[in-house]
Amino acid sequence: MRQVTGPTDHVVVVGAGLAGLSAALRLAGAGRQVTVLERAAVPGGRAGLLDVDGYRFDTGPTVLTMPDLIADALDAVGENLADWLDLEPVEPLYRAYYPDGSVLDVHADVDRMADEISAVCGPAEAAGYRRYVDFVSQLYRYEMRDFIDRNIDSPFDLLTPNLARLVALGGFRRLAPKVSEYLKDPRTQRVFSFQSMYAGLAPHDALAIYAVIAYMDSVAGVYFPRGGMHAVPRALAGAAEKHGVTFRYRTEVERVEVEGDRATAVVTTTGERIACDVVVLNADLPLAYRDLLGREPWSVRRLRHSPSCALLLAGSTARYGKIAHHNIHFGRSWRGVFRELIDEGRLMSDPSLLVTNPTRSDPTLAPDGREIYYVLFPTPNLDAGLDWERLAPLYRDEMVRTLEARGYVGFGDAIEVEDLTTPLEWRDRGMERGAPFSAAHSFFQTGPFRPKNVWGRNVVFTGSGTQPGVGVPMVLVSGRLAAERILGPDPAYRSRAYR
Q1: Exposure of 383 by Cβ count < 10 A (0-12 exposed, 13-18 middle, 19+ buried)?
Q2: pTM over 0.90
Q3: CB-CB contact of 476 with 463 (8 Å)
Q4: Tens of pLDDT along 452-489?
C-alpha cells in the first residue's frame, strides 16, 4: 500500500466533515499532532446545521446506517459510542407510498418485512424478498473487506478470492435485472433499488454490487441520533478535541503550499501560513485539486457527477399522523425519472421524492407543537445548464404543490420557517457541479478507477469524491483509509472488524 513519505508528526486536516473527523480521530489516537481547519462555524461539512427560531435543521444526510463505523472512529481514542451519542433505531426504516394508493413499510427484521410484503404484494413476493436478503448479505460479506474497506492502488489489488465470488454471484451485472431475479412486483423493485440514486446512477445502469447500499439500510437498519444528524459530527469533533486535536473554525484555506510534489504548509485566506508534515484534504476532491493544489489531473477533469437535488427545509405547524420518520413517495414514472434527470438534464415531470420528519423521533428539534420537514426532490446537476436563479422560487412552489397533491394537505400555509437549497447553493458550499452526491459510481469511477486518495509525497484526500465513495458509511471509511496512508495499515482494526 502506498503511503506518504517523510515525517508525519504534524498533520493539518482541511475540512471538518465526517471523513476529516474520522481521519483526525485515528491520527490523534496514533499520537500525531492534528490541526483541523474548517471554514464554517461548526463541524460537519455536508452534515451541517441550520438553527432558526427554535428549529434545528440538518442540512445534509438524514439517513444513518452502520453506526459501528462511528464507534470504531471513537474507539481510536479510547472513547465509547454510548458516551457521545444517543442512537435510536428508526422503525419503520422507510414508509413507501405508491401511485396506486398502496403503502409498504420497510423493516430491518427479515421476518417482519416478509410478513409486510406478503400482506401488500403476496406470499410469492415475500419468498423472493428472503432470497434477495440472502443475495445482498453475501454481497456485503464479499465486497466490504476487499473492495470498500481497504486502500486500492491498482486494479490488480482486486484479484482476491472474493472477486471470483462476486462475479459468480452476479455482482457485476446491472442492478435492476438482478433485483428482478428475486422481486417481481414493481413496488418492491423500486424500494430495494432506489438507493442507486445515491451512487448517481439509474438502477438499470448501476452495477449490482451497489445493492450493498440497500443492505446497509434495508437490512442492517437505520438509526437516528437524538439532537439530529448533526449530533454525529459534534460527537466526533468533541472526542477529537478531548484527545488533543486543535480545531480552528471560521478559518478558510486559500491554498496548499507545495514544493515539487511535497506540501509544506497551508495558507489561509487571511494570509496565515501553517507549516505541517502532511496535509489531509476533506474538501470536495475536484475543488481540492483545482483551488487548493492548483492542479487538475485528467482523472479529475473527466469525472461525471451525480444528479443534484432541491432541498426544502420547513418548520411547520402541521402534523401528518399517517407518515413515518422517512417517507418515500414514488411517482408513476420510474425509468422516466432517471432518464429526465441523468440523460436529458430535465426536472422530473412525475417526481419521486423523500420526506423526512425528524421531530417524529426527536420533538426537541422544534418549538413545542411544531414539526420539521426535510423535503428532497432529485434534480439535474449544474451541467444541465438550468437557470436556478430564475427557477428556484418557481420550483419551490412546485415542490409544495406536489406535496399537497401527495397527501400533505395545507403544507404551504403551515410553514413558519423555510430554507431552500438548489444546485447553486450546493455549488456555493463547495460541491463540484452543485452535486452533493459527488462523482457518479459508474464502472470507470468505481474502486481503483475512482480518483486516488493520495497525491505527491504527503497529500491525502478524504471524503465522497475519492475511494470508496458516497454516503455516511463510505466517508467514515474514507477517513480511516486516509489515516492508513499516513500511519500504515491497522492490523488491530482488521482483526476486530472481520473476526
Answers
A1: middle
A2: yes
A3: no
A4: 999 999 999 999 999 999 999 999 999 999 999 999 98
